[in-house]
Amino acid sequence: MNAVIDPTTRHRLNVQGMGGVSDAKLAEIAPWQRMAWYVCATLAATGTALASPVLLFLLVPISLGGALSNVHPVDRIYNRFIAPRRGTGPLPLRTPQTRFACGLGTVWLIVTALMFQGGAKVAGYILGAGLTFVAGLVATTDICIPSMIYNALFKGGQPK
What we know:
By secondary structure, the protein is mainly α. It has eight helices and no strands.
């Protein structure tokens, strides 16, 4: 496979801490690298639309798993079932930037679920829409705002 990754995508993935992964590998797995973000954004959007604290709380262990492990729970599905069929090998390990994003998302999910559970639906919808937007942005464009925050706080603004 001689796929090429464009410079904009390369930069956005570098912001996520993927500077050590080759262009060839990223070109091969880039759409699959986003799978965890798609799943989380979709579940967050659904939980928000339904004002369902239960669904949002069910997403917490997935998000927390992404924060605590360098292999996101959704990546495990890819690595186990999809990568062998595609011949790509496992996804690269999650970086501190993306683990920070998952940690932030975990807290955001809990607060959003608590808002719905406590009857503060407007706050729940606002928080849930924001969470869905942030996760959806990285899922569709590779722009990861929490990674930018991580880099600003811990890397002097630099992605590497």
